[in-house]
Amino acid sequence: MLLKLVPENTHYRFMWLRRYSFPLSALIAVASIVLFFTVGLNFGIDFKGGTVIEMKTNESPADIAQIRADLGTLDLGDVQVQSFGGPDEVLVRIQQQDGGEPAQQAAVAKVRSSFENRVEFRRIEVVGPRVSGELAQAGTIAVISALVVILFYIWFRFEWQFAIGAIVTTINDIIVTVGLFVVLQLEFSLSSIAAILTIIGYSLNDTVVVYDRIRENLRRYKKMALPELLDRSINEMLSRTVMTSVTTLLALIALYIFGGEVIRTFTLAMIFGIVIGTYSSIFLAAPMLIFLNLRPGGGQAKADKEDKEEDDSAAAPA
Amino acid sequence: MLYFARWKIALIVLVVLAGLVSTLPNFFSTETLRQMPDWLPKRQIVLGLDLQGGAYLLYEVDKQDYIQKRLKTLVGDIRQTLREEPRIGYTGLGVQGQGVQVRIRDVQRIDEARNRLSELANPLVSSLFGGQQVNEFTLDVSEDGLVRFTFTEEGLAQRVRSIVQQSIEVIRRRVDELGTTEPNIQRQGEDRILVEAPGENDPQRLKALVGQTAQLTFHMVDVSMSAEQALQTRPPAGTVVMDSIDEPPIPYLLEEAPLLSGEDLVDAQVSFDQRTNEPVVNFRFNTSGARKFAIVTQQNVGRPFAIVLDSEVISAPVIREPITGGSGQISGSFDVESANDLAVLLRAGALPAKLTVVEERSIGPGLGQDSIDAGRLASLIGAAAVVIFMVLAYGRFGVMADIALTANILLIFGALTFLQATLTLPGIAGIVLTIGMAVDANVLIFERIREESRAGRSAISAIDAGYSRALGTILDANITTLIAAVILFQLGSGPIRGFAVTLAIGIFTTVFSAFTFSRLLVALWVRWRRPSHLPI
Q1: Closest-CA residue in chain B for A45?
Q2: How far apart are CA B515 and CA A257, in angstroms?
Q3: How far apart are CA A267 and CA A259, in angstroms?
Q4: Cys-Cys link to B354, which of A92, B8, B62, B103 (CB 3.0-4.6 A)?
Q5: Residue A286: inside a domain, yes or no?
Q6: Which domain holds residue A152?
Q7: What number is the average pLDDT over the span B366-390?
């Protein structure tokens, strides 16, 4: 082949790295949690309420200082103005107004009448306090219920150690992704929840593929010590893991560069999530099984749940 | 795994062709499609508001406003009931929090008062409790003559439900008049109404039309004192001061009880005043309204009356002669658009309660088009990158995976078109993500084939084992993503839901194309070339 990202028959010793990968991941996860509670997420209007107005100015480039000054005279409280996409495109964020939904509408009306002649309003989004509260709740419920349902699915398909390992790994991925949002102060909106759910899906996808091979090898090499077996499984799947990550990243990078400003944060989160998901399925999900005592004593095979494994008929070649 | 029955081959090819046929109309303009024969499929993908531009408005029934209004009417009803002969003396009648309170003077007549008032507790037929009757109010009467009406929870809920229902009808009539194409108006939860107007590029006007209560009333103007005087002192009993819509507003002193209201209207049209050539709104009453109007105008020739819309005086003409024909004219300072909007509002009727915008998202057509262009470019480049990469990594098998990927994309678009699911910008992202991940199924299979081949199997046996062993893995891996997509669909509205839909459809088409289509391609190739070793 013209391109071989991963050589054949690799024998990297991934398990040996767990004494570095575990503390490192734990450190990053703890740092993310600390940052989450100290610095905090940059919540978008979906969860905080408020108004976002995207406008295209008649002159190019847009005079952001002037727009900021003009908005300042309207008495709308905290207003942020930033360029967005092209040089003549500006994004205005207006904080939640005191006085509930009618006050929000009044604020938008003020901005409209003040800028009507100078700009084209490309997007106006107003989210009231009640709706934003509900969205935040719905988003949290969605992420948690996704985790629970998937936990049960993996528990049903594999043994409990796999389910725990997969969920702990996935939670780690979520925490670190949220950490990225905090560190870069990316706007956290409803689409960020969508990105996180996708990352959950992808990360588990990756983890399940590796676990699948581990389960197969557990039956094939009944005497092999667990760390050695895990290393072997990961090496066998390494080519696939890298290939899939690369194609997915190729598609997402195209989306990041050409897909427009509106979904850029969404795409960035997913790119990050794919990288983290790939890392964690190799360096966290697999070694976690050693900690969870998947094969006590290292050499002795554990009784398999044969009744559940109908599609892979053990070692003997068909 | 490499043997296919003829009917299976036919079926697989048919599915892919169906995807192609269903996708095709998207490549033509609606104009071209109209000219094509009828038997061809013509449905195109439904674009979300974020792609075609439009307005998304979420309204909520203002319960407090409704409760206050309802309690006010209840006060009036109680007053009337107690004043009926033989009168029952009472004191302290008024709204108290979420209820109405009144004290019966004569403790001896409490039972009589209770009997009379109990009718006002107003039984409603509940749709929720299987047609059971629920009372709108509970009636508490204490020993010492204190009577209290309080909203029951079910009664209020029932009222809110019917308000939402009525409002939807009214809004639909109004939006239809605006000429918006395919608006979506529906109930959302207990007390909310969603209005989606695709392609609507003036959300301000839409909002003005949808959100206005449009309660039209006719009041006599009280000329016993000027409005300024009334404001300074205190308006006489049964009168109220209302401002006009002029800038600056002019206050009018009006009799509080309306003579007539918008419910008596049957029609309203814009026309032009013959003298001033200004736009005016002509309206017509129904029979009973016309009769009332005739009597009132007969009795009050020479006095001014006011036409009031939502507590604002539009105009206050003097009655010159009795109007017996049942029609009238509202002239204010209208332009054609505002006159037209008023006519629309009057024709569609008033909203039963005030509505508040709790969420608004409007996207201009410019941004929508930009997003489509960006999404298209990103998908093409992303797909091209993946396709090239696959050929570089897997050679001939990569080409087959690419053909399967193309079929996969066709199937996604075909399914979206066929199901008339809405494509949004995050939805496009979902497709791009699927393009990246779809390859995974093929990669899993090919890697497995490589392994089996290295383990010393013959080409055909390795391919066979590769497919059958990868199946379980692929299913497990895709089901986890599918679970995430389904939950996302539950959570999401609009754009996010579009993402969940394409992701879910993508999972099905991916598994299909990897397990049937690409396997078929490999099988045909094996049958054709009979390879002894694998080019993989």
Answers
A1: B359
A2: 32
A3: 9
A4: B62
A5: yes
A6: 15-42+132-299
A7: 90
Query: Could you report the per-residue pLDDT of A223-241, keeping only the tens digit for each?
Result: 888 889 999 999 988 888 8
Alpha carbons B100 and B121: distance in angstroms, whole number: 11
Contact A236 B451 (CB under 8 A): yes
Interchain CB distance below 8 Å, A194 and B500: yes
B389 touches chain A (CB under 8 A): yes
Q: What is the pLDDT of residue B286?
A: 87
Q: Are residues A85 and A157 in the same domain?
A: no
Task: Read off the pLDDT band of A302 (50, 70, 90).
Answer: very low
Q: Are residues A92 and A227 in the same domain?
A: no
Instruction: Give per-residue burial for B118-131: e unless 16+ CB within 10 Å, then b.
Output: eebbbebebeeeee
> Measured between CB atoms, does B278 come within 8 Å of chain A?
no
Block residue for tokens 């009931």:
B81
**Same structural domain, A138 and A151:** yes
Gap between the Cα atoms of A18 and A292, Å rounded:
14
CA distance A134 to chain B (A): 11
Residues A163 and A255 in one domain: yes
Q: Does A146 reside within a domain?
A: yes
Say yes or no: A164 and A64 in one domain. no
Decide: helix, strand or coil at residue B422.
strand
What is d(CA B390, CA B507) in angstroms, rounded to the nearest whole number?
19
pLDDT at A315 over 50: no
SS3 for B429-498 is: HHHHHHHHHHHHHHHHHHHHHHHHHHCCCCHHHHHHHHHHHHHHHHHHHHHHHHHHHHHHHHHCCHHHHH
Question: How far does B332 lie from chain A, in Å, by closest CA?
Answer: 23
**Chain B: residue whose CA lies nearest to A213:** B473
Quick check: B393 and A258 CB within 8 A? no
Residues 6+ apart with CB under 8 A from A19: none
Print burial letters for A235-257: b (CB count within 10 Å at least 16), e (below 16).
Answer: bbbbbbbebbbbbbbbbbbbbbe
Any idea what the Cα angle at residue B157 is, between residues B155 and B162, rounded to 5°? 95
Query: Which among B51, B40, B42 has a CA at the least distance from the CA of B417?
Result: B42
Q: Which residues fall within 8 angstroms of residue A185, CB to CB, at 6 or more apart?
A: A42
In a domain, A270, yes or no: yes
Q: How far apart are CA B531 and CA B536, in angstroms?
A: 12
Distance in angstroms (rounded) separating the CA atoms of residues A266 and A59: 29
Chain A residue numbers with beta carbons less than 8 Å from the beta carbon of B500 are 194
Structure-model confidence comparison of residues A213 and B2, the more confident one: A213
The full length of chain B comes to 536
Domain at A120, CATH number: 3.30.70.3400
The residue ranking higher by pLDDT, B165 or B3, is: B165
Who has greater pLDDT, B124 or A247? A247
The 3-state DSSP class for residue B532 equals coil
pLDDT for B240 equals: 86
Which candidate from B363, B485, B496 shows the least CB-CB separation from A190?
B496
Cα–Cα distance measured from residue A246 to residue B511, given in angstroms and rounded to the nearest whole number: 20
CB atoms within 10 A of CB A264: 16
What is the H or E stretch that residue B217 is in? Answer: strand B216-220
CB contact under 8 A, A260 and B492: no
Residue A151 sits in a domain of what CATH number? 1.20.1640.10
Residues A138 and A173 in one domain: yes
Sheet holding B265-272, edge to edge: B265-272, B279-285, B327-330
* Chain B residues within 8 A of A198 when measuring between CB atoms: 433, 481, 484, 488, 499, 503
Answer yes or no: is A315 within a domain. no
Among chain A residues, CA nearest to B536: A1
Mutate to test the interface with A, among B1, B205, B359 (most CBs of A within 10 A): B359
3-state class (DSSP) for residue B407: helix
For residues A246 and A271, state if they share a domain: yes
